[in-house]
Amino acid sequence: MKDLFQAAHAKSDRSGESRWRSHGGAVGAAIGGLALAVTLAACSGTTSTDTTAPATEATTTQAPTTTNARVTATSIATTSTTIAPTEVAAAFVASVGSSIQPAIDLVAPGAAVDLAGADSYEDLEGWLEWNVALGWSQTDVDCGNAGASIVCEYTYSNPWMEQADVAPHRGSTYTLQVGDGKIMSIDEDLAFDAFSPLWDDFKAWITTEHPDAGILNGDEPILTDEALAQWHELSAEFTERLLLLEAGNAYVDALLSLDPDELDRVAGGDPNLYEDKYLQAWLKALHYRLDARSCDVTRGRLNCALEGIDDLGEALGVSYVDGFAISVSGERIVRIVWSTSADPQDVFDDFQDWLRREQPELFAQSGACEGFFQRGPTPEECALAWLAAAPAFVEAAS
Question: Pairing relation of β-strands 34-42 and 332-343?
Answer without folding.
Answer: unpaired
